[in-house]
Amino acid sequence: MARLILGCGNFGGIGSAPAFFGQGESEEEAFALMDAAWGQGITAFDTADAYGGGCSETWIGRWMTSRGHRPSITTKVFHSVAGDPADEGLSRERITRQIDGSLERLGVDRVDTYMAHEPDPDTPVEETMRAIAELLEVGKAGAIGASNVDRGWLDEARSVAPIAVVQNSYSLLDREAQDEVLPSCTEHGIAFTAFGPLAGGWLAGKYRRGKPLPAGSRMTLRPEPYRHLDDDAVYRGLEQLDEAASRRGVDMPTLAFAWLLSDPRVAAVVVGPRRPEQLEPAVAALDLHLAEGERDALASLFP
Predict the structure, then answer these.
(1) Residue 15 lies in a domain
(2) Per the domain annotation, does 217 fall within a domain?
(3) Helix, strand, or coil (residue 144)
(4) Is 59 exposed, middle or buried (0-12, 13-18, 19+ CB in 10 A)?
(5) Domain of 138?
(6) Distance from the CA of 90 to the CA of which of 44, 147, 148, 161 falls in 20 to 30 A?
(7) Which of 51, 114, 170, 226 is catalytic?
(8) Number of folded domains that form the chain
(9) Annotated catalytic, 235?
(10) What is the value of pTM for the model shown?
(11) What is the pLDDT of residues 7-46, one digit of tens each?
């Protein structure tokens, strides 16, 4: 598995949130990001049917046709492509319907990995997993994945069908995956991919103590997942992380990526740049190996 994956969640929106459909990167900007990623050797793209109200998959499909490239594609199912709260979840009927929409937008006959985007409390896990497994049998998907899951969900799902990859949030500022999910993935031979490696820009040095929030940043658009980070202890840790990066001759985001990529349990990291140059820290981090003691020291900055 490639160590870096291009996250396409901001193509035509901000994730799956209907309130932001039509925002995020334009098609031209998305093409520039895909060109830059491909040029850096990043040949795995991560999307979801509802990202940008379908724009993300559509633009990836157009880019593939235009450039003649075929990246490894992961897409996900749960949220409504049209922003309809009555049309979401992981029922068998919905999965069967949504995969066809994804394949049409992407312009392919098969996606490499099809993921449950998050658990569905209204649908039995067995129904969901059997439905996705059927997609493997008919050749519409190459592997089963799951995102935003805990160990309980994962254990139940594994008993029904083989899960190849789990994608959860994991970073210096969000280490919940270390408690149960990462050990479970390691134990059962499931690839773990980390999203949110820079915690919405916090580990990129975007937010400074006492400074105005940058226009268009996650903290101005969707602050809820990150509001708890607006804390003196976090700012102190960020200042020390910045110093640690300077001592190594790199910038903060490069060191934050290296902390993830140096974890042998992490198969790959999903990188979601807003501009092509923002790929550079992740690529640079591939050559910055941190020993276990160094990783522990950096983690201790954020107790």
Answers:
(1) yes
(2) no
(3) strand
(4) buried
(5) 4-199+260-293
(6) 44
(7) 51
(8) 1
(9) no
(10) 0.97
(11) 999 999 999 999 999 999 999 999 999 999 999 999 999 9
